[in-house]
Design brief:
Strand 6 and strand 7 form a beta hairpin. The protein has one domain. With 149 residues, the protein is α+β, with helices and mostly antiparallel strands. The protein contains four helices and eight strands, in the order ααβββαββββαβ.
Amino acid sequence: MMKKREFVTLFILLLAPLLLAACGGQRNSVVSHGGPVRDYVSLVDNLRADGATIVPTGTASQPFFTPQGQLITVNGQGVQVFEFANTAVADAVAETVSADGSSVGTTMMTWVATPHFYKAGKLIVLYVGDDSYVLSILEEVLGPQFAGR
C-alpha cells in the first residue's frame, strides 16, 4: 500500500507538468477570443492580435450617437468606439452618416482632421485623423470605411 508521503510526491510529479503547461506562456501572450469583430471586446482583441498597441483611455460622446462610446488609443491615436444594442440598430444609425462624414442625421460637423467611419457587427468606429498605420489596421480589422474622406 502506498504511503501518504509517496502519494503526495506522485501526485505533485503528475500534476505539476499539467499546471505548468496550462499556465505557461499566458503572461506575455495575446489572448484573443478570435473570430470577426462584433463588439468592443472583439475589436480590441483583433487589433491587439494584429500587433496594435491598444490603451483604453475613457469614454467618448458625440451628439449624433445615442450610446456613450469608449475611447481607445491605437498606437497613440485616439479612436472612438460606439457599441449599439444590436447590429440592426448600428446599421440604421450608419445609414444616417453622409458619405463624406460631414453630417450625421441633422447634425453638421466641422472636424479638426479627416473623419473615417467604420462599421462591424454592432459597432460604429470613428477615427478622426490621417495616421496611415491606424487607417490601415482599422481597415484590416473592420473592413473599408463606410463614410468619411
